[in-house]
Amino acid sequence: MSNIFYLCEWWLAIFILGAATYPISYRLFPALKDRYGFSKILGLSLFTYLSYLFSIDKTIIVFIVIIVFGFVVFQKLRLKLKLSLSCSFYEVLFAACFFLFALIRSFYSEINGAEKFMDFAILNAVFRAESFPPLDPWLSGEHLDFYYYFGHLMVSSLAKLTGTPVEVAYNLGLSMFFALAVTTATSLGYNLTNRRRYALLKAFFCGTFR
Fold it and tell me: How far is the CA of 143 from the CAs of 54, 122, 188, in angstroms?
């Protein structure tokens, strides 16, 4: 299957998780002027943690539960969500960062150098785990601490959901984290300054020095 298909699958899954948890984000952060920018990271964190609790092999069930729960929150609280240009702005920003970083990684897709080999080993350990905590790939008979592999679990959960091979998921995970860092930093900057241009400046520094 084409890697472009996996790329689009990941973008769609992240978009749905963000949209589904927007009502929750809207309710959790009433003091913030902008709440949509935090919905993706909230949705992914919730999806990952529930996958950890119930089984990484049941990600499709967890995915559906989050969608239904988000819809129930939306209906029960009767939230007047403003799907304004701000929401479109964050979606365009995330998509641009995600696809651009994936394009860059496509030219340098080898998993080699720095800590990539270690990250890939942990990612494989989490991806293949039949129960948690997963086995430590560096120390036979020992298990990984949750502190070290939550990010790897997030990537593995999305890989299981979309049927993505782990070697492809590694680079898509890097692209996802970059895009999340930029969009979340932008939202944080906007909430602190109430100025879109300062928010974009913060995102620029985040993307440059990540």
Answer: 19, 11, 35
- Exposure string (b/e) for 125-145, b if CB count within 10 Å is 16 or more? bbbebeebbbbbbeeeeeebe
* pTM (2 d.p.): 0.86
pLDDT digit string, tens, across residues 26-66: 888 877 777 787 889 999 999 999 988 887 778 899 999 99
CA 93/CA 202 separation, integer angstroms: 13
Contact between 87 and 190 under an 8 Å Cβ cutoff? The reply is no
Q: Alpha-carbon distance 158 to 170, whole Å?
A: 11
**According to the 3-state scheme, what is the secondary structure of the chain?**
CCHHHHHHHHHHHHHHHHHHHHHHHHHHCCCCCCCHHHHHHHHHHHHHHHHHHHCHHHHHHHHHHHHHHHHHHHHHHCCCCCCCHHHHHHHHHHHHHHHHHHHHHHHCCCCCCCCHHHHHHHHHHHHHCCCCCCECCCCCCCECCHHHHHHHHHHHHHHHHHCCCHHHHHHHHHHHHHHHHHHHHHHHHHHHHCCHHHHHHHHHHHHHHC
Which residues, in sequence order, are CB contacts of 165 under 8 Å at separation 6+?
6, 159
| Interatomic CA distance for residues 26 and 43, integer angstroms | 12
Q: Which amino acid, one-letter code, is at 104?
A: I
Average of per-residue pLDDT values in the chain: 83
- Domain residue limits, the chain: 1-207
